[in-house]
Amino acid sequence: MTGIDVRAVVAARGVDVAFDVAAGEVLAVLGPNGAGKSTLLHVIAGLVRPDHGVVRVGSRVLTDTGSGRHVATHDRRVGLLLQDALLFPHLSVLGNVAFPPGSSRPAHWLAEVDAADLADRRPRQLSGGQAQRVALARALAAEPDVLLLDEPLAGLDVAAAAAMRTVLRRVLGRDGRSVVLVTHDVLDVLTLADRVLILEDGRVSETGPAASILARPRSRFGARFAGVNLVAGTAGDGGVLHTAWGATWHGVAGADVVAGRPAVALFDPAAVAVYRDRPSGSPRNTVEVVVAELDSRGQAIRVRGEEQPDGGPGLAADVTPDSAAELRLVPGDRVHFAVKAQAVALHPGA
Question: Do 295 and 151 belong to one domain?
Answer without folding.
Answer: no
